[in-house]
Amino acid sequence: MPYNxxxxxxxxxxxxxxxxxxGLVQLLGLCPLLAVSNSVDNALGLALATCxxxxxxxxxxxxxxxxxLPEVRIAVFVLAIAGAVTSVQLAIAAWWPELHxxxxxxxxxxxxxxxxxxxxxxxxxxxxxxxxxLDGAAMGAGFGLVLVALGAxxxxxxxxxxxxxxxxxxxxxxxxxxxxRNWRMHARAATAPAAESALTDRSAA
Length: 205
Known about the structure:
Elements: H1 9-19, H2 30-36, H3 40-64, H4 70-95, H5 97-103, H6 114-122, H7 129-157, H8 167-204
Helix pairs in contact: 1-7, 3-4, 3-6, 3-7, 4-5, 4-6
């Protein structure tokens, strides 16, 4: 979502969890979303790792972004993200080696997730620290909810349907989740004018 200097905390939360959800609206991070979500444990692990990186990178972007020259801003943010990802990867390897092995290459690939760099550059670098952290938490939670929901569906359906555990099954299930969200948004848009019209009629009466 483009930078809006007048965004309130509630709007930032709604932006990350719903209106600009990284997984269902912006369609960012689809590679790990489809590859790692074959179980709830793996999905939750990657969701927490991504959220941690978002918090750290947003905090750094908020603290130093306004002081950086345009020519070096992106490079500094990429270095900060790479440092955050390395720290998270080493922590998981030390404390949860089984999860580290399960996530494999998709942990370091968080560096290339467009979501992380986009939030640092387009939002966090122009916001105070508190709002930048809130945005990182909201975007991370929005991405994590989609990841865990997809992991739960695949793990549940995989007991009787092998396709659900394979990458094509993940793609199909994500498409169904997108269709469900779009249907809900269209239904909400269709009922809003009718509700406003009924309210206007009551006011006139």
